[in-house]
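Hey,
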Amino acid sequence: MTHRVLVAGASGAIGTALVPLLIAAGYTVFGSTRRPDRAKHLEAAGVTPVVVDVFDALALRDALGRIAPHSVIHQLTDLPSGLDPARMAQAVTANARIRDEGTRNLVAAAISAGSKRMIAQSIAWAYRPGATPYDESCALDIDAHGPRGTSVRGVAALERHVLETAPLTGTVLRYGQIYGPGTGCDVPAGSSPLHVEAAAFAAWLALERGTSGIYNIAQDDAEVNSAKAKRELGWSQDLRSGTQV
């Protein structure tokens, strides 16, 4: 049977860049969205749309049961368009919820459907302050206060659900600050910038290589060290659409 992949959050910035890579590689791609108006856009991209809310655990389990994906790629976020500063305070809480409760529901649904693998989006700017560059063994800043603490604890929950829930094999990609088409940011910014297409390639490579564990994914001048991703995934910050890997 053709390898079936569900991309949760397929209509987001990274999902949009990832879908063509998966289709070109021969995967049968299903894409989840909670917005019915995005279904036609997914169909046009060659994806079978799945309209479901990740917080509706029963509906999510039924949907994945019908699809029976071998692998699930978790690119779900809950962020305002263009990262609108006026809405970011509320978004921090909403995004933490999707990382914890949403990921827990997605993991449970994937296991129920017989899925074998999950690759999930995390962030690379959640490390506890210390000597840089940070590698994947460095501790997360889970004791931080305020919005940062809310965000980091959401990330820690996501990673725990993905990496420690048997029998799924889990991979976590700690992305830097995304820029490029569909992100609301056209130029590199932040301590660990990352082009959206290079981010998509990291997810595709993790699927192709069958690797597990945690990987920093950011440009070479970042606050984090991405040597592990380069070594084990064959990833590069220069990967873009049209690249042959």
